[in-house]
Amino acid sequence: xxxxxxxxxxxxxxxxxxxxxxxxxxxxxxxxxxxxxxxxxxxxxxxxxxxxxxxxxxxxxxxxxxxxxxxxxxxxxxxxxxxx
Length: 84
What we know:
Layout (H helix, E strand, L loop, with lengths): L1 H25 L6 E5 L4 E7 L4 H13 L5 E8 L6
Parallel strand pairs: 2-3
Antiparallel strand pairs: 1-2
């Protein structure tokens, strides 16, 4: 049983990464966002600087409310996206 805690700890970033990937795919956001998942399950995400506020807010809310994501640090400081 001693290894169970280690296995669960390794599962945290995997679950968070899967959640972020699903949400990014749902919004077809690969072209205007980048992200990194920390070992703790927290996510750092950067959106294109010209991402529409409504879309930014919607994706951010979905990320923050996902049970497998422990927290989100987000911003709109990435390179502009020609799709907007």
